[in-house]
Every structure is written in C-alpha cells, then in structure tokens.
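Supplementary Methods S3. Complex input for the NDP-bound model.
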Amino acid sequence: MDLLVQKIISRDPNQKEFLQAVKEVVQDVSEFYNNNPQYDKAGIFQRMVEPERVIIFRVPWEDDEGNVQVNRGFRVQFNSSLGPIKGGLRFHPSVNLSIIKFLGFEQIFKNALTGLLMGGGKGGADFDPKGKSDNEVMRFCQSFMLELSRHIGSDTDVPAGDIGVGAREIGFLFGQYKRVRNEFTGVLTGKKLNWGGSLIRPEATGYGATYFAQEMLNTRGQNLDGKICLVSGSGNVAQYTVEKINTLGGKVVCLSDSNGFIYDPAGIDSEKLAYVMELKNIRRGRIKEYAEKYNSAKYTEYDLGDDHNPLWNIKADCAFPSATQNEINAKDAQNMVNNGVVLVSEGANMPCTPEAIQVFLDNKVLHAPGKAANAGGVAVSGLEMAQNSMRMSWTRKEVDERLQIIMSDIHKQCLTYGSDGGFCNYFKGANIAGFKKVADSMLDQGLV
Ligand code: NDP
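Predicted complex, serialized as structure tokens:
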C-alpha cells in the first residue's frame, strides 16, 4: 500500500485534498487489504484511485451587464461498480480538480454504505453564486448543463446539489437538460416536490447526521436530550441539523458562514431557525444579521490570520461541522476536547484535518466521518431515483423511516469493522465496510 500511495502522490503531487482523502482510506483499510490478497492481485486499489472518467469543460456565460464570463466545469465519474454514478455538484470559487476528486473518491464509499445501488462521483464549477442575480445563475446553469448533458443520464450519472447548488440551481439545470435532451427523466436529484422531488430530500443530510449522532450516543446509554451542540455553516445541512437536534431535545448555540459566526447561548429555537432559513435561502444574506435581530446572540468576524476557529472553542457536548473541508484543525479539536465535546458527527465532507482526527481518536471521542454521518443526503437521493423510476411518491413518514433504517444500518456496519476493545473507530469501520462492498463488486466485474 505504501508503494501505491507513493505512486499516487508522484502522479498528482498538487492534489492535496484528494491525497488527504486517499491517505485516510489507505491508513484504515491497509491491514484488511493485505489480509485479502485477491484484491491486490486484481489491482483493486490502483483502479479505485483512478476515476473512470474526468470531464473538464469551459462554461461561458453573459452577466447582467453584457460582459462575457468564463468558468471551469468538472464532472469526475469515479466508480460505477455499484450502479450509475451519483454525487453532487458544487459551485464555489475554490472548486478545482483536487477538490472534486476528493469529494468523488469519498462518495464511492459513502454510496456503498447506504446499501443502495449507486456508484460514486462528483462535479461542479469555480462559479460563485453569491452576489449573482437569479438570471445570471440561470444563464450559468444553462451553459453548464449544455455541456454536462452529453455525459449524464438517469442510468449513467445522476448529479445532485452540494455547496452553492440548492433547489434553485437544480431547477435551472433540470430545465436545460430537459430542453436539450427532450426527455423528462430522473437525471438530477434534489428536485422540487411538484416536478419529481422526494419528500425529506432537503432535510435528509442534516436529519441523517443527527440520527447517526443519536446512534453513537446510544452506545454509551445517552441521547441528544439536553445536550449543548455546535453547528457550523448555515446552509442546507446546518439548517436541518439544527431542526432535528431541536426535535430531539438538544440545544444548538452557534451557526456560521464564510465571514464569521454567531453564538447564541439562549439556543437557536424553531422561530430563530425559521429566520435563518428566510435569511439564507430567500434573501441570501449573511449570518451577521442574526445577531442584529436577536440580542441574545453575539457575532464574531473570522480573522483569517487566526490559527484556530473560535467557534470550536465554545463549551459544548456535541459538534456537527456542516460547512466545508478542513474546518477543524488539531488546535480546534484540542479546544473541543478541553471544553467537554464527546461527539463529532460530520455533516460536511472531510471537515477535520488528519491531525484533528487523531486528537479525537486519542481522546476516545465518538467521531463519525462524513462518508457515514452525512450519507443520509445521498441515500434519500437514491430513494428519489427509485420513486422517479416507479413514477410514484412516498409519504414523508415512509421516506423518513427508510432514512432512519439506512442510518442505523450504516452505524451497524461501522461497529462491525471499527470496534476494538469497547471503542469504535468509526473512520476505520466506515472505510473498511465501504471499501469491501466496492472491491468485491469490482472483482466480480473483471478488469474494467
Ligand atoms: P450550502 O451551500 O447550503 O451551505 C454551505 C455553508 O457552509 C454556508 O453557510 C457557507 O457559507 C459555508 N461555507 C462554504 N464554504 C466555506 C468556507 N470555505 N469557509 C467557511 N464557510 C464556508 O451547502 P451544504 O449545506 O449543502 O453543504 C455543506 C457541507 O455538507 C459541504 O461540505 C457538503 O459537501 C456537505 N454535504 C452536503 C450534502 C447535501 O445534501 N447538501 C450531502 C452530503 C454532504 P457562505 O454562505 O459564506 O459561503
């Protein structure tokens, strides 16, 4: 495995996020891999780290002033051994090939853990929807989809949302796909309810991360009732994490965006959450405004020169990072442990640096990786695909029950492969369980 990792590094030395994701999996699966020589004989890992297909394309569009703008679009179709490629689209100025490859690589194992038949991939563009008019976002989405439509399809590759891609963007992308291909199919998930979406899809990632937290706490005879919780971000995942924590009796005391965070010791109750949803999803404002509206809250602007994020230095029991990758470093992790955090459920993808993961492991924190804890989003996307194929819709209760069963099953898989001496290493458990499913399918399907 070490030699293999050296080869991957020498091939793409600058893809630091991708290499971080690969090294994490290697560290956890190498013993299992070495104990099962059939994998190495078939070159499974060598093939797994190389995407089946990478598409990079120009996205030209016109802004409201009539100026030509050009962005770069990506779709990485990583692994289809378990089904059609499935994974979100991210629109954010930081998007590059390394970030899309790390997200696509993680997605392979996450999708495998759900037990649904979905391969893994990811896509996006270095386009920033912030500050753009609806018309500009529509023109961008149409241009992006004009090219992407050649490469996707309901049985080939079914994208969804991620950072910067919500219901508005999915609508524009779907409309353009339908026009170009002249077909109304389930080619995207995260659709609005009235034209093929699934109930609970908007809620699924946040609800799922909270259900997973509840499962982890259960192993210690505890639950979320009365727990003080930290949630970062204020987008889709963060909002529904707050909603479910509130329902289960916990108290969320902070939210953030890329400029800063609010700390509200009184708790973000359902009325305040409704305000956040209106602020972020409709007015597209900044989290700072929360502290202007509620005087129980204090806003802190991020200082980019800081070596830690002060949001993670608030006294709490549980943490739900729900913004972006590497938002918790070793110093943050140590602060969290010192302040009493006993559980970290990753709503975001790869929010912890490798050093932070080690701090949590050393301190026996219940810590679930995104590929397990945030799999609820793609799971309900899978359920949306199933409903689209059957041309029918399940009730809210039905979808929520299926989501809870899936999250509980992922938790069991983590325990199976990650437990040792009464403690579960959820990273190891999720990585081995996901890897095994994908590797065994690749073995069955021959050298492709
Ligand atoms: P949204 O775009 O809805 O919200 C993202 C939030 O994170 C915003 O508050 C945003 O602030 C903040 N954020 C984004 N980038 C940064 C950054 N570089 N630094 C600080 N804050 C940042 O995205 P989602 O809620 O959908 O996604 C959040 C995380 O969850 C991502 O890691 C995503 O990959 C992961 N995820 C999402 C799923 C889904 O179903 N949506 C499924 C599984 C994982 P600002 O407004 O200032 O940009």
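The chain has a mean pLDDT of 97. The longest strand covers residues 68-79.
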